[in-house]
Design goal:
Helix content: 25-40%
GO molecular function, one term: ATP binding
Strand content: 15-25%
Largest sheet: 7 strands, parallel
Mean pLDDT: 92
Number of strands: 13
Order of helices and strands: HEHEHEHHEHEHEHEHEHEEEHHEHE
Strand order of the largest sheet: 9-10-8-11-12-7-13
Protein name: DNA 3'-5' helicase II
Shape: globular
Number of domains: 2
Structural class: alpha/beta
CATH topology of the largest domain: Rossmann fold
CATH superfamily of the largest domain: P-loop containing nucleotide triphosphate hydrolases
Radius of gyration: 21 Å
CATH class of the largest domain: Alpha Beta
Pfam families: AAA_19
């Protein structure tokens, strides 16, 4: 049996206080990894579903799927009362509903992707439309809201939404279109009392939390308190000449306890395909049935990851926010290849997100090639990170 428990945990005192806030109005919930932001988002949705229209918006499809699975397990039939979507899918549907011009969203003049949306044009089109009819009673609940720009929130307010609850961690921004805390506060006209903070980390072991905190970079989200749970395992950097040695290590970890969900985090789709292929096909004697190896590529794919069962999940770092795994392997060379070409902060924020996905064990995988610049950006304290050689 490889079943896992993905039911929502009991709420802590600080989480109960957040849930006790009025349902109406604009709210911003801040908190570091593992503090229960998504837990509060889902509990808020359950609370709202009993008294009005609740709409859950997630930034990416993997987090959306994960939250759907948790809510079905935790809420039963009540989960069916909650409308859920990814942000951009909902935006297209909402825009078409208001202006009757199709779901294609207007782009900025210098747009480099479909996500570079001109929210001012959207606002003007909705205001000018004879079809516009915004349901002001809808409660919008947005998870990982820091990855949407200020213009998105200005648009929501300007077209008439009156109840918005946003969960965010500004240390976990993954796009160049994100908002700052100041911009989000301004867009929603929030007072200090409208900004709520979670401080306790319930996910990570003390060792993993300390390692993750090394990459903390944005003080606009207060750091979490250090967890008291000690796992007895210090995050470990494993150097290896051949990546197949890493594949065998991951398969052995999965075979040791089939109930564990193992996350393998890479920087791009080329490396994702490599790990997926080898983990599924490498010949190896295992004591248990071969673990399921799941992945997700892009917004055109459906998410077929079962978080209620153990196995291996291979994802690019842009898709892991809000998720948690029992054991995590971060493919360091792959992350560095992508993030170092942006800037130092991009690497730190990626590592902050990646490391904090792990509940029990955290491994970093690196080739034997000397990379002083990379090593200088990792902890050199043996109490934070151990170093080993996988080829020995």
């Amino acid at each position: 049996m490889n079943e896992r428990i993905i039911r929502l945990p009991e709420l802590s005192d600080e989480q109960f206080k957040v849930l006790g806030k009025p349902k109406e109005g604009f709210w911003l919930l801040l908190g570091g990894p593992g503090t229960g932001k998504s837990v509060l988002v889902m509990q808020r949705l359950k609370q709202l579903s009993a008294s009005g229209d609740a709409l859950f918006l997630a930034y990416n499809k993997v987090l959306h799927s994960y939250c759907q699975q948790v809510m079905r397990t935790s809420f039963g039939d009540n989960a069916m009362k909650i409308t859920t979507s990814t942000i951009f899918k909902w935006l297209g549907e909402f825009y078409d509903e208001q202006v009757k011009q199709g779901r294609k969203l207007p782009k900025l003049p210098a747009a480099q992707s479909d996500y570079d949306i001109d929210y001012e044009v959207m606002e003007a089109s909705v205001r000018a439309s004879d079809h516009a009819k915004v349901n002001k009673g809808v409660y919008l609940v947005v998870d990982e809201g820091q990855d949407m720009p200020e213009g998105f929130y200005n648009f929501l307010v300007s077209v008439g939404f009156e109840n918005i609850f946003v969960a965010a961690d500004f240390n976990q921004t993954i796009t160049e279109r994100q908002s700052t805390r100041e911009e989000l506060v301004d867009a929603l006209a929030l007072s200090n009392n409208d900004v709520l903070t979670l401080k306790e980390n319930y996910r990570n072991s003390s060792e993993i939390a300390k390692f993750s905190q090394f990459f903390y970079s944005d003080k606009s989200t207060p750091p979490s308190n250090e967890p008291t749970r000690v796992a007895g395992f210090i995050p470990t950097l494993l150097k290896c000449k051949y990546r197949l040695h890493a594949i065998k290590l991951i398969l052995r970890e999965a075979d040791n306890d089939p109930r564990k969900l193992i996350g393998v985090i890479v920087g791009d789709h080329k490396d994702r395909e490599f790990y997926i292929s080898r983990l599924r096909t490498l010949g190896m004697n295992l004591e248990n049935p071969r673990p399921t190896v799941a992945t997700y590529k892009n917004s055109h794919d459906t998410v077929e990851i079962d978080f209620a069962h153990g196995g291996i999940v291979v994802l690019c770092d842009a898709s892991v926010k809000g998720l948690e795994f029992d054991v995590v392997y971060v493919c360091l060379d792959s992350i560095w290849k992508i993030k170092s070409s942006v800037d130092e902060v991009a690497f730190k924020k990626s590592m902050y997100v990646n490391a904090s996905r792990a509940k029990e064990k955290l491994f970093l995988l690196k080739n034997l090639q000397e990379n002083r610049e990379l090593m200088e950006r990792l902890p050199n304290d043996p109490e934070l990170m151990q170093i080993g050689n996988l080829d020995e």
